[in-house]
Queue: 2 jobs
Job 1
Amino acid sequence: MTIIKYPASNDLRELVRFSEKDGTIWLAENRMILMHTSALGTLRKELIGSVGKEHARRLLTRMGYASGVRDAELAKRIRGQQSMTDAFFTGPQLHMLEGIVRVTPIDMELDFATGKFNGEFRWENAWEQDVHTREFGLSDEPVCWSQIGYASGYTSAFMGRFILFKEVECVGCGHNNCRIVGKPLEEWEDAEEHAHYFESDSMLNHLLELRNQVDYLRTTISQQTQTSQMVGSSKGFKHAFDLVQRASGTQVSVLLLGETGVGKERFARTLHQLSQRKQGPFVAINCAALPNDLIESELFGVEKGAFTGAQTSRMGKFERAHGGTLFLDEVGELPLAAQAKLLRVLQEGEIERLGDDRVRKVNVRLVAATNVDLQAAVREGKFRSDLFYRLNVYPIQIPPLRERVADIPLLVEAMLERFGTLHEKKVQGVSDKAMQAITRYHWPGNVRELENMIERGIILAPTAGWIEIEHLFTHIGEMANWDGLITATGCLESKPEPCRTAALVDAILTNGVSLESLEKGLLEESVKRSDGNLSGAARLLGITRPQLQYRLKRNSADE
Ligand SMILES: [Zn+2]
């Protein structure tokens, strides 16, 4: 082993320029910054917290890699005429000058002509292990990720082939120094395992894949419980359920209509369960939950290379639902371009993935749902009329909970059973007073709101005790929906107050206020009182946020 010495670093130090007047610092032609390592430590911690250790490591490795590549360009320019070793040492010397780490060469063999590279270096005072151990303590694996990225990026760009560096010892794991070894990728036995930290981040794909798995699991787990929750004996409910049963024997596309929270997905699952497709998949997608530029790839799939970031081919929901049922919730939110494609799929029974010209046959029953007035959307040009007619062949209106008050006790009973099992807690039931409050409440959030409330009640009520009003309605805001039946202290009043409404109606009629201007005034005032917060305004009015939005939109369209 030869003793390896750095050349003098004056040439490099002269490249650093502080241009205070411009607010800039330069390393040759590269703009640099002085940053607090503690700030970088915060960034690192937040990265790990939000995307997890593996992805954070990948991002930081790639960041270091990019910086190493820049310095390799500089090395060739500054020391291109010097010996190969001296030229290469630009990297380790810059790494020190930049304040990243002290680098001491232990062993190095390098041959440009054959592409041979073998290097071992000792690292001391690494900033990265410093901030990492401060936040996380000792680690099982090396932690100098961006520095390894730098060493690999620098050497790869310098040598013109991928040289992978690995930390074989790291202070972050309890060693005295960090020690790194670098050689061509293919000479590492575990190349694959390390190389993927250098690949561009495919986190979005991972997330989408995970979400698909979650959807699938949820489908399998909840099918049983969901259909058993189809409880009700009210006229409106029975009518809707009857329509579902009749549709189940056919292949007709179904359009479920109703306010938010009425249980449209539950109806869709029931339809699936009752149909001959029940062995096939049930796939649900909420069109409002996806950004516009993702919706088409989610629905129809994407072929590798279709656009930047499409690194792998992926099935869309239509393909996943093949042989089963696809539930498209909030279909009114589909962008027009996606509407055109959806229409074509419904007409032809075949799909084309994005970036693919192959046509694939799909056998899917579509159940669409919406809580907006699609006909109005058609009039406003936001929804294609041909698609509307295609979807509206078999509409089923699911009544809001306040119109099926008779079902509430049955629903509550079923929910008590379910949440009691889930939370391993038995209660006597809902007290009479609380039940009275429940049946008189407006239920702007419908069955879903009732569900949330009963679950809360189960959690808050004493074991083996009764669920009381205060276990159900915890926010004062909810009292605003109360129809004047409950006082701020949570006590039910013995009588409703019809006189208040009567006096109002009288005043409105006497003063000749039109219904439109009354609604407009009410809407504007409630938005104003909630400081523009639409959810708050909706609560004041006892309606849902989408309902409020719809009314606001309609009013402004009328003007
Ligand atoms: Zn280290």
Job 2
Amino acid sequence: MDRVNRVVIVGGGPGGYESALVAAQLGAEVTVVDSDGVGGSAVLTDCVPSKTLIATAELMADMEEAAELGISFAGTAAADPLGPVGESGAGTVDLRRVNDRVKALALAQSADIERRLTRDGVRILRGRAHLDGVNKAVVAELADGGREELEADAVLVATGASPRTLPSAVPDGERILTWEQVYDLKEIPERLIVVGSGVTGAEFASAYNALGIDVVLVSSRDRVLPGEDADAAEVLEEVFKRRGMTVLSKSRMESVTRHGDRVTVTLTNGQTVEGSHCLLALGSVPNTGDLGLEEAGVNRDEAGFIKVDRVSRTSARGIYAAGDCTGILMLASVAAMQGRIAMWHFLGDAVSPLDLKTVSSNVFTAPEIATVGWSQNAVDAGEIHAEAVTLPLSGNARAKMQGVRDGFVKLFCRPGTGIVVGGVVVAPRASELIHPVAIAVSESLTADQLAHAFTVYPSMSGSIAEAARRLHRYNG
Ligand SMILES: Cc1cc2nc3c(=O)[nH]c(=O)nc-3n(C[C@H](O)[C@H](O)[C@H](O)COP(=O)(O)OP(=O)(O)OC[C@H]3O[C@@H](n4cnc5c(N)ncnc54)[C@H](O)[C@@H]3O)c2cc1C
């Protein structure tokens, strides 16, 4: 009988738990060691909680627009006997209840994943693990005080990343907060300063603004979302300003200090911004410091991220890494795919190397910004030769009916073949609308093929087909 492969996974986030499911499916004996709860930061502090908060914010933003669609609300903040906690034109928000819901949902999701892993025969250990030298051995310091030495035929490191902080801006968990700490807020911030206008900063600024909070967004660059499509970022910044958010561009934070119930953000130009709370969204640092990586022969880059190839192999034989600790593309979906690829590779199943050009991603602001494939930046830089068409949503019948004014569909295709190589959708629920474009990109469909599929009339996706039609070249 063949010997069963032993796989030890350090970290139970999407990189870890998705690879555990694949390894178990392929017959391996799998142990996952996790220090903070199955599901990882993705489920407990980052992705799931923020999108749950955003679900409430989305409803508020929709209600703000309701008057245009002929709806007015009888109840007002003043009529609420409990008094308003947070207030927008459309109603009141009880942040305690919102946060309780967020935390309960995250815990329930973690429990769901744990049940699934257990059902599939994966052994879960609660504790901190590190590699023990070059022999693929892992030591788990268990949360209940025990210690277990685990021998493995393959190890997968998926320990994730943590919010970056600075000595001049130290979170106190009350008024100066990381994104992991906002769900403990009991009171609605009177004025929230969000430092950092990348995806995380923009998402929280958008959400809290929709909840009726006075938000100041401090951005070191000349526009929000410097890493995203510039046209999309411009639309978003306009919407932010129209909704009353203060956006300070080219403003680099130097320090954040607290005096009683006030916080002061000092900028490098000497200007100060006052608020009641500050949320730091300064990016992430990898959790790779105390894992014994060096001793095990696992190389990291200068920022501490584990170096991997496209099938998730590290520099040490039999040791793989996946997810945020590799810094490849910090998304739950990518972490999960890297983890699955690692296990398919190790256990000899069919595997294709990771292809970042087919990853669809989304910024969960209002409106959302979804992208896939080659970007405008790459086209402008001449990295790929592509034609582009941009279609504003303002001409879309469904958008008009729903009172949607902002947004567009942009498609890129190769000039000769017409093959779709990328796209951007800026719209409410763009995360759902990007899928046909993602299919076109990953399956190398032409703009004509994308255009020929029926869309529902009226529908937002009609604009995707229309944009594809505009890329048609008559060769007759
Ligand atoms: C605010 C925010 C919102 C986000 N929203 C989205 C989104 O909408 N969509 C999306 O795709 N991505 C989103 N992301 C990114 C996503 O959360 C990460 O890409 C994802 O969590 C990476 O998964 P992972 O498995 O690498 O690590 P993690 O989810 O961080 O899990 C790592 C786990 O390993 C544990 N661990 C660490 N060290 C050890 C050790 N020594 N021993 C044992 N266990 C250890 C940690 O405690 C943790 O449980 C968001 C990120 C942030 C910050």
